[in-house]
Design goal:
By secondary structure, the chain is mainly α. The protein has helices spanning 3-12, 35-46. The N and C termini lie far apart (27 Å).
């Protein structure tokens, strides 16, 4: 499965994505700039969605 496939399946299963994030920085919130944050954002975009944890961009 691609990351976009995982996001799609998660949406079908009603995963609370607003409670999750992927970030190499390991802080209290995602940095939005590291490789995994960028990949996650792109996976949501490929599904026509906005990543609910990324705000202010």
């Amino acid at each position: 499965m691609t990351k976009a496939d995982v996001v799609k399946k998660g949406m079908e299963l009603k995963v609370p994505y607003e409670l999750t994030w992927s970030c190499y920085e390991g802080g209290d919130k995602p940095c939005g700039k590291c490789g995994t944050c960028i990949d996650r954002k792109a996976a949501f975009e490929k599904n026509g969605l906005t990543d609910p944890i990324i705000t202010g961009e």
